[in-house]
Amino acid sequence: MDAAGLDNNGREYSTADEMWREQTGDLNKKTLWYREGVSYWEGVNATVDGVLGGFSDVNEPDISCSDDFLKNLLSERFPSSDVINQPLVALDCGSGIGRVTKNLLIRYFNEVDLLEPVSHFLEAARETLTSGAYANSDMHKAVNFYCVPLQDFTPDVGRYDVIWIQWCIGHLTDDDFITFFKRAKVGLKPGGLFVLKENISKSGFVLDNDDRSITRSDSYFRELFSRCGLHIYKVKDQKGFPDGLFAVKIYALVTEAPKKVHRTRSKTLSNRPRKIM
């Protein structure tokens, strides 16, 4: 990857490849990269404020924006008649304490599986989502809790309608980003898709030496999507976050190129001068 970037200490890298060679260029370095990333989060409290890095006030606008995006997505991709005959199933990657599952996914999906490498986060999610009202619901429930790193996970074939990946893909190297999506494709049902919600840098990338992650630019992500054989079906910008935070985008990604809609205009209309808006 040719994108230039810098780390959170201000050090500049001429390319992402240069940074990756330095950080994860051999097996020992790569193992350390992932170990330190998990270790960082093991020292964080299993609370909303903890998993959101001290910015618990973004929880509400985050869920609201994702809710609007998901409702439109499901209505287009999974008509209600299909849902009646085929219950919807989602995978929440980097689920943390189950914040997104609890506030969003479990309302739309009949079954949700959670994937999280930090054990005390996952146990907090399990405690919340298998007790009280959640324990008594047969229609909308959390089913499986996988304490597995993203780079090591392979889903069951054809289980998921949506694989939701939020604020965790930055921990993966570019190579593992690509191999993860290629493996995860087998977990999608026909017509299924990925939803990726992530911080976006203005250009190139920003390396965080503390939690061992990178924030990629939109063009960086699009290059990786192409290498994964994925196509952008829909994209939305997050609104309502405090100033000073990274921009955030939500991408809906499909494995087949969306069909192009060809529109024709009548000669009468095409010959009229067009208004500049």
UniProtKB/TrEMBL annotation:
**InterPro entries the UniProt entry points to:** MeTrfase_NTM1, SAM-dependent_MTases_sf
Q: What is its EC number?
A: 2.1.1.244
This enzyme catalyses: N-terminal L-seryl-L-prolyl-L-lysyl-[protein] + 3 S-adenosyl-L-methionine = N-terminal N,N,N-trimethyl-L-seryl-L-prolyl-L-lysyl-[protein] + 3 S-adenosyl-L-homocysteine + 3 H(+); N-terminal L-prolyl-L-prolyl-L-lysyl-[protein] + 2 S-adenosyl-L-methionine = N-terminal N,N-dimethyl-L-prolyl-L-prolyl-L-lysyl-[protein] + 2 S-adenosyl-L-homocysteine + 2 H(+); N-terminal L-alanyl-L-prolyl-L-lysyl-[protein] + 3 S-adenosyl-L-methionine = N-terminal N,N,N-trimethyl-L-alanyl-L-prolyl-L-lysyl-[protein] + 3 S-adenosyl-L-homocysteine + 3 H(+)
The GO cellular component terms are:
cytoplasm
Q: Which UniProt keywords apply?
A: Methyltransferase, S-adenosyl-L-methionine, Transferase
Biological function: Alpha-N-methyltransferase that methylates the N-terminus of target proteins containing the N-terminal motif [Ala/Pro/Ser]-Pro-Lys when the initiator Met is cleaved. Specifically catalyzes mono-, di- or tri-methylation of exposed alpha-amino group of Ala or Ser residue in the [Ala/Ser]-Pro-Lys motif and mono- or di-methylation of Pro in the Pro-Pro-Lys motif.
Q: What name goes with this protein? A: Alpha N-terminal protein methyltransferase 1
